[in-house]
Amino acid sequence: MPSDCEIAQSTPMQPITRIAASLGLNDDEIELYGPYKAKVPLSVFSRLSDTPSGKLILVTAMTPTPAGEGKTTTTIGLGQALSKLGKRACVAIREPSLGPCFGIKGGAAGGGRSQVVPMEDINLHFTGDIHAVTAAHNLLAAMLDNHLHFGNALGIDPRAVLWRRVLDMNDRALRNVVLGLGGRINGVPRESGFDITVSSEIMAVLCLAESIVDLKERLSRMVVAFSLDGKPITAGDLKAAGALAVLLREALKPNLVQCIEGTPAFVHGGPFANIAHGCNSVLATKMAMHLADYVVTEAGFGADLGAEKFFNIKCRSAGLSPAMAVVVASVRALKMHGGVPKERLGMPDVAAVELGMPNLLKHCEIVRTFGVPLVVAVNRFPGDTQEELDAVLTHCEKAGVRAAISDVHARGGEGGLALAEAVLDSLKKPARFRLLYDADMHIRSKIGVIASEIYGADRVVYTPEADAQIRRLEALELDRVPICVAKTQYSLSDNAALLGRPSNFVITVRDLKVSAGAGFIVAYTGNVTTMPALPRHPAAEGMDVDADGVVTGLF
Q: Is the pTM of this model over 0.85?
């Protein structure tokens, strides 16, 4: 079978002006980035203000495994299938981070016959949004260090600087660095480090902001350090918000592209799915909902991380009310949760599929906690047997969950028709969307609800560092916001080794950090890194470009 890159390159694309017209956008309402990409200015909202919103469909998944689930592929394939059924559909997803594309992950534009195109552009520099976030983040870092160098009028404690630098590349050597060496002219020496750009709070702010005014207000609120007397120092205190907004003004506009089959797709924003909310921008989602009757979006990782944050953070902030959710599963992932090692996944094993089902059903329970109807998409992989697929369908039926086989990787929209029909049937049921907790609750209470209701933990324990941070945040009145838990994506617990549906476990919160601009508190559990590393044999080793500019090896 051809690679994803080869499939994308062999697919004729429509001019982006035609894609925009299919959504009802006028020629003067798009800003072209070549023939196949465009940005849509925010002024479009003025014309669309009285337009009714389409139905918002969230695609989430069971707990991720190295075997693959296919969440983005399913999102795109479902959008294409809805279009095939004559529905006015649109896809809204995150744009990929550059670093992981060269590491182990490969591309992040879907797969097979369900991709967004131009795939190479989207996976590489695209329209420069992530680079703009890099520049804005590092400008703020430079202004902070410049303030320290020129007298430190704000009384910043150099040992309490929170704002590190970022780079959109996997580079373990930059995780911890020392700044300001080489004498007084080169600044104040202190320990710091680099994170990957998509983990920057600025990326989270960009994706939650709903206007340039909102963007500047959120940027101004970002806490970058603490003073010697323990008071928060913000980007506004450093008079940096205006300059950051200047760098981000173009990045704020949603990007419009297309799926392989011509279904419109907004690909915009890419906040880290662990320490942020892991969803595409609010602006792109709302724009799509004004322009289409059905909008298919996704959230990072499984329902315990992605869907929970989509509901409790993004929907709360933006006033969104999702109509339903799709939970993606695969036979391969179920077998891994049933105890089968990756190297033996090609061997038929119905018993292992059944042993892995509790994980999938737990994620269905999580979605139902929010009052949202759901459908399970069983993403077909080559080598899946009919007996294995039937086992998934049977167990879902016994649990009262509707499920459909999805073959969108191999067959595009045609392979997603059964899933699309199941989704349309489920949309006839009224959604009674509700949030999990009140943002005004105490920090421990909010974390406790997430740990018990979403993860299934027995209790939560806090390190002395976490206890101290909670007291500080409450004293500073920075605590009345949602919680964004940073934990491993590979388990419902905070221990990646606990597969399936673990029980009798404890969640340990080791630290907390306020993202005041984004409007949430990050609670760190386990060992979550914010600067990924390259594997022994990174994907970059197999990439090339020929004399005609044709890229190979990009997934």
A: yes
